[in-house]
Amino acid sequence: MQVQNTKSFLVVDDEPLVRMDMAELIRENGYEAWEAANASEALGILERAGDAFIGLITDVNMPGTRNGMVLANHVRAIWPHIRIIVVSAGRKPFAGELPDNASFIHKPWRPEQVVTAIGAV
Could you tell me which residue ranges the Response regulatory domain spans (predicted)? Predict the structure, then answer.
């Protein structure tokens, strides 16, 4: 894997169509988008090229031992420069669950919500 520029986002969602739609929206707005199906796959990508990413968009509920909240907090600790956007169809995160300066978008998300959130990067 070779990340081409430093305008890259990593999209993490176990639902392939949701992940592809989000990645396409990111590309349409001038950014490079990488995709991962779960937190472990995302961490593998970040371990190889974390400094090249400016943003992470992750779903909360995913298979495996790490959900999106755990991933978001781990990414903040290791790569503090990465802007984090958490999405979920479930409950809104409690105070303190999200890392500092992270955004939350409730599913189903609207394109303008995502564009606003990635533009804040």
Answer: 8-121
Each residue of 11-44: b (16+ CB within 10 Å) or e? Answer: bbbbeeebbebbbebbeeeebbbbbbbbbebbbe
- 47-80 pLDDT, tens digit each: 999 899 999 999 999 888 789 999 999 999 999 9
CATH fold of 8-119: Rossmann fold (3.40.50)
Q: Other C-beta atoms within 10 Å of 102: how many?
A: 20
Rounded distance between C-alpha atoms, residue 56 and residue 58, angstroms? 6
Question: Among 71, 51, 75, which residue's Cα sits nearest to residue 62?
Answer: 71
Using a cut of 0.85, tell me whether the model's pTM lies above it.
Answer: yes
Element (H, E) at 70: helix 68-78
Domain ranges of the chain: 8-119
